[in-house]
Batch of 2 targets.
Target 1
Amino acid sequence: MRKKKLAVAAASLALLGSAAACSSGGGTAAAAGGKVSLTYGVWDTNQVPAMKQIIAAFEKQNPDISVTVQLTPYTDYFTKLQAAATGGQAPDVFWMNGPNFQLYASNGVIEPLTSLTPDTSVYPASLVKLYQYKGVQYGLPKDFDTVGLWYDKSIFDAAKVAYPTASWTWADFQTAAAKLTNPSKGIYAVGATLEGQENYYDTIFQAGGQVISANGKNSGYADPATIAGLSFWTDLIAKKQSPSLQQMTDTAPLDMFESGKLAMFWGGSWDAVAFGANANTKTGVNVTQLPSGVKKATVIHGLANVVFSHTAHLAEAEKFETFLGSQQAAQIEASTGTVIPAYNGTQQAWVKAYPQYDLQAFLDELPNSVPYPISQNTAAWNTLEANLLAKAWDGSEPVATVAQQLATQMNAALAKEKQ
Amino acid sequence: MTMAATRTGARSAASAGESAPAPAGSRTTGRLGRRRPGGAARRSNALWAALFLAPTALGLGVFYLWPVVQTLYYSFTTWGPFGGHTWSGLDNYRQILHDPDLRSAFENTAWYCLLGLLGIPVSLALAAVLGRPGRRGVAAYRTLMFLPVVTMPAAVAIVWRWLYNGDYGLINALLRKVGIHGTYWISDPHTALIAVVVVGIWSTVGYNMVILMAGLQSIPRQYYEAAEVDGAGPVRQFFALTVPLLSPSLFFVTVLSVIGSLQTFDLVYMLIGRTNPALPQTRTVVYLFYQDAFIDNNRGYAAAMAFLLLLVIVAVTAVQFRLQRRWVHYG
């Protein structure tokens, strides 16, 4: 009897032990045979091949470190990252963007670069500044992007409309849009995506409006010029020159453009990779500068690589971050045509990666570029934008009414930040 | 996290309640009848009982009950964006009373519950048809009907998204053949909730069918023979015999369906998505909980919401157990 009891106890102990072993294996960075493994959090599947090339080059120089890419689609990236960071399980090195940067820096989730003392003069100054919080540098710029007017050549040819040029105005765009729309073939002139960076932020700036005041304290949505920038898109939907918000929810405008259902698409410089890999858009599309409203404008934004402050391998993570910010890494990004690298002097290689597209347009827009609007807790009012503007986009409420509501609620969200 | 825990918890507890007690009870009585245990033996029995219960009890305690206690505590706190919380008393509960989003989420959830119950007659009909022995290919149909139950909700949602697609979906393509112009099912605020309910029913019908089939098979054939002799037709037989004798299974299926509907999340998350214009008309309480806890990082408020939902589920289930006295017949 006693022996049996002992056996049972031993067996249950063994079970418990194995359970404990399972749970301890879930860490992000487990050292295997003296080799340090790092994880690298990214959100763009199109960039993964280039990131893997960069990692291969890094691992060659540092045989004692291995890096694995952790891909999370953008819609869930920051939700997951925030939960992971709260639980101390974020990737060791990860992509950061402007809207989220200040939240992470002000809460001590990402590591300041004070000990690295990097040479930041090799990157555009506006990008360097984007990743400074209270004068301290937290991230090394990875790339930058501007927005351009992509167009489907065959739809323009069929409608006998001349291809868009860098000198197009809003009026030129609207005239062409009317001619390009072809309901019988299910072809629309453009997709009025409910996106800030690629769509309504650009038109707001072109109309002379603003999203947030220069000091970051007040919403710009009550400004009539801002409302004109929003109306640019809702008018297109009302005239059925763009699919409805419901249609665009069912099928993403990017997919429609790739399948030849949209004549024009306002897209980022990062879209070149996807278009270059798609049979329809490989040679069938081209790109030029955005049309000008009251003035010429495009949003400029860039990502940075940052280090998780609670990483178990700080030295190795910083080493990797430094490499990601190096000219060698930028060369790989440029030559694969993935994104415009932030490292000065490597941008021309990116332009040459896809000779069939006039990618130079994205660089020519730089003098007119406006920084992506952010504040300390950008996500809070980004949610408001998405929820409220949807009512103007689906036509259930007038743009001006919605913009007023948005301004009021956004100001309330901004007021909370100061506490 | 807590939501998923309560769901599986409720399901396993309910099924255990059905099957477990009978054999265990009979064995103990048999043993007691043979030999009266002394004090030491009884103590040893209790020890063994505790030992066997320990794995389940520990799991239940650590993964289900302790989180409930934690959630209750957190519902009185306010959280920072990266953890760390401060006591804020009844603030969250005061805010809950005036939250229009939560009110509409509760309304939507109530619709999911009510419309979800329509799945039970469907399951019953299927169980009656597929439960008859000796039909050709019945096993294949049963397997087909059960497949959605064991399919991942994410996969289910992705396939249905394609089916529902307004411009290129299969459903509208078929409707066009008969001259009907279909809408954008899951992004039209008028149809989105129904569209989600249909998928919800489709994916649980197989499970309910199996439970009801087991119930049907336990009804003795003689009753039907006797009824036939007395001149009762099939319809009369169904309502006078099948329904009352099947009522324990029907009750079980109803309770599970309601609890499941009250916790609808994954289908809304996957089918509707964050940027859908129909989200306000389809958002459930658990979706709102997810949004507050993980997107807006308002974890204390979300905990209060979760606790409120727990109370609602307990209340609804209690009412169902009260009402069962009126319509459920055991034995």
Note: Chain A has two domains: 36-145+301-343, 147-299+368-417.
Target 2
Amino acid sequence: MNPVTPRVVTLVIDGKDVSARENETVLQVAREHDIPIPTLCALEGLSSVGACRLCLVEVAGTPKLLPACVLKVEERMKVQTQSERLVKYRKMIVELLLSERNHICSVCVSNMHCDLQSQAMVLGVTHVRYAYRYPSLPFDGSHRRFRMDHNRCILCTRCVRVCDEIEGAHTWDVMGRGTGARVITDLNQPWGDSESCTSCGKCVQVCPTGALSDKGKAVAEMIKKRQFLPYLTLMREEKS
Amino acid sequence: MTPEELHDLAIREKNTQAEAGTTLNVCMAAGCMSSGGDKVKEALTKGLTSAPAGKPCRVKGVGCMGLCEAGPLVQVGSDGPMYKEVKAEDSSDLLKTLSGAPLKRLLCPTDTPFFKRQKKIVLENCGIVDPERVEDYVARDGYTALLKALNHMSPADIIQEVTTSGLRGRGGAGFPTGLKWNTVAKAQSDLKYVVCNADEGDPGAFMDRSVLESDPHRVLEGMAIAGFAVGASKAYIYVRAEYPLAVKRLQIAIRQAEKLGLLGQNIMGTTFNFNIQLRMGAGAFVCGEETALMASIEGKRGTPRPRPPFPAQSGLWGKPTLINNVETFANIPPILRNGGAWYASIGTEKSKGTKVFALAGKITNTGLIEVPMGITLREIIFDIGGGIPDGKKFKAVQTGGPSGGCIPEQFLDMPLDYDSLAKVGSIMGSGGMIVMDETSCMVDVARYFMDFCMTESCGKCIPCRVGTTQMHRLLVQITQGLATPADLAQLEELCDLVKNTSLCGLGQTSPNPVVSTLRYFRHEYEAHIRDRKCPAGRCTIKEEAAV
């Protein structure tokens, strides 16, 4: 027996008429139709949290900007993904991120393979107008195969979600508040001492920056492989 | 408990109270307790047992009487003379007055505007009933609204009555309560929840704390009525762990109500079940935001999530959830007792009823007040509040806590309601009101609130997490005389970003103190930047800033 088929709705994204299933998000539909919306925390196959705010879009009739990653499509919805205001905000958000921790591309394992770096390039961020905070942050190299560099973490929580939702280990979580927030393993123990970590490495692969990386990789050598995620999701959907 | 038993209990309690004769009401809310109210009560009780007064008399611990500034407060009966700043040593003198003239030395006049200009609905029992005895509440028509709701009204009738009353959410945003109840009632689910938001965290605000400490049963009754109206049988009160007295009194109240069958299974002999549990917050301001609050109740990290879906549709554990503030629930019993039309006759066209405010800062009468909507700020500050102490000049009043704004003198005569406050760039908020005089530097005030928002940001979304940090840095530079006009421009740009792109209300409203002070006190910012001077003389200008 087939479950109830979702209704199909039509909407307009950037002046383009598109159709979508009613349970889809604006981000999903936009990507299907090659309409680019920048994201950092969203990743296909993981739940959406609407945290990075890069995917904010304008919806006609709503004064507030809404995150496309969690925004469900509606019949006759009119979405604008690019505008002077949106681009300005996105640039500012990326600049804020760059000022928050110590993102120094030239010495980073993920240089040239980094989501933050590519978003900055796409958005034309050539300068950071905000004062760099240069926080003093730890580095965890206690795991046998992986390393965690808090200097490069943008708190997107992809590692937290993949570990919880896909691997089922929930080794990662977040502690602290504000700029003091940090991702931690278990109860803030060194990663190498974690009893729940299965060393599957999914967190490393989904990490958008060089915060999580394989040991033994030098500058610009860390290329993340994320194909497993949509594949796993698809397999699980078919099984259920 | 059946309706007859409730009635009997009320009569019995009234008789007992009449027989007990004069009562000496001693304030046992946190404000007076912190200045020794409990010792006063102890001394009075002791004095009464060792040397009984000529006529029947007893000492009773009651809730907040409002004038926290002058605590510990003691009142003879609920309308007799009131005594302020009472010490344990004064107890024998006070007891003597029971059969003689009032004690002039400690007398606190109650015919002043502070007492006369208030209109008490939410606080009607505060300072009169013993918050630790359900019988006292029942003797003052307690639980009769629940009785009426369960026996004589349908859920739709109740919601209609609340809608008619025009009550708007007292947590700050002012969403129409009837509409919210109706949405939850319409949602289809096998399980629904009612949540009371008692995570009052605004600096200078203590309305919810006082209500919970002084009259906890009123909130429980309001919640039970809400549960019946929307079809929920489970409820949570999310209260700050920093309010130990409120927590204790709520625990006592829930236990007493359950014992009498006013909460629990088959309430008042009907098929309605309603269970209330307490959840204590661990000290995060953001947990007052409804989605973060619910995440916290679920045992998760207290961070907000994007809305929609709204809690009315998908709240606690994905079930439809009605979430209201303490004061909103406290308004429900009188609305049902007296009818929605009665409530709607108080206040302004779009903001009905009364509002409780916590007066703090540079004001003579620090304390808790309840006034009808539409009253002017001038009446609140200069009549009820007694004006600015030490002959200083009024400068601004901050309403709505870190999400609110500073209102300058020119708007003091504006009628106070949700919409007029929004128009001048502030918000009603939960009811904190901090008065500032000429010695306050408005840039420093903005810096203080930004520091608060920065520290309390959960860190989930980037604009709030990093934006508030950068804004705070700029404000510190301005107060130190180290900023340039470009910094001010950057500050304004960040205000716009954080307001429009943050995930939850905390972030979206965090620029408000800056925006409102820039709107009315821009010259103070400019003085710090251009002249490297703090007009109020409050900020320490760094030496290297000297021109």
Note: Residues 8-82 of chain A form a domain with the Ubiquitin-like (UB roll) fold (CATH 3.10.20.740).
